[in-house]
Amino acid sequence: MKVSLYITCLADVFYPKVGEHVVEILERNGCEVDVPQQQTCCGQPAYNSGYHKETRDVAKHTIRTFEKADYVVIPSGSCGAMLHEYPHLFKDELEWKQKAEKLVEKTYEFTQFIVDVLKVEDLGAVFPKKVTYHTSCHMTRLLGVKDTPIKLLNNVKGLEYTPLPNKETCCGFGGTFSVKMVPISEQMVNEKIEHIEETDAEVLVGADCGCLMNIGGRINRSGKQIQVMHIAEVLNSRS
């Protein structure tokens, strides 16, 4: 099975190890992985800021980049959700709308691909720590991916999972929201951390680097001893 990895901007720049873990897991489960070097941002920052014309240019580039891929796997529900917006961007351009729809059909968030396409729920991971999981907004509400991360975490040997209270609430990142609405974003992430502490978890796990960067940054500045990890790191752990 041939898979193209859409690494995403945040993983590429700030969390490159996440990409490495994703590739190792996919290859170990029979996938031939390539990482197209010409890939760029999915266009979400521009799209969310109202620059739809500019976003269409980015979207066309992305469509061309992954046009020949059998499957596209993204370690970010947020970026995956953005690709699902492409057909709406091209509602008045039939040719590009059809190409966008083809891209959507073969694009999967990482945990979604593992469980729903590869039909694997136990990756042989070992991670003996107390864990809670942050359900990111775009991944759950726009992509509808809710159960696959928990299925995978529940099969990690030694992992003690506790659901996060008020898991439906946003962490305050929201891409450009955290830049434009700093005081509100700060209060939202503080509330999120309070709920994380309620679980007594040693590790906060998530599937979106944006959320993890926001929550992790606030945890670090607050001097709290909670580790923040992408789910691919946990699922590739052997100790």
What does this structure look like?
The structure is a single chain. The chain has helices at 9-13, 16-28, 44-48, 52-65, 77-83, 86-89, 94-105, 110-117, 137-142, 148-153, 177-180, 182-198, 209-221, 231-235; strands spanning 2-5, 32-34, 71-74, 107-109, 130-133, 160-161, 203-206, 227-230. The chain is an alpha/beta fold and 239 residues long. Strands 2-1-3-4 form a four-stranded parallel beta sheet. A four-stranded parallel beta sheet has the order 6-5-7-8. Helix 13 (209-221) links the parallel strand 7 and strand 8. Helix 12 (182-198) packs across helix 13 (209-221). The radius of gyration is 18 Å and the shape is globular. The relative contact order is 0.15.
- Beta-strand portion reads 5-15%
* Structural class assignment: alpha/beta
Number of discrete helical segments: 14
Distance between the amino and carboxyl termini = 28 Å
Strand order of the largest sheet: 2-1-3-4
Describe the sheet with the most strands. 4 strands, parallel
Q: Which CATH first-tier class of the largest domain would you pick?
A: Alpha Beta
For the residues shown, what is the average pLDDT?
A: 95
The general outline is: globular
Which second-level CATH architecture of the largest domain applies? 3-Layer(aba) Sandwich
How many structural domains does the protein architecture include? 2
Radius of gyration: 18 Å
- Tell me how many strands there are: 8
Extract low-pLDDT stretches: none
- How are helices and strands ordered from N to C? EHHEHHEHHHEHEHHEHHEHEH
Helix content: 40-55%
CATH topology-level fold name of the largest domain = Rossmann fold
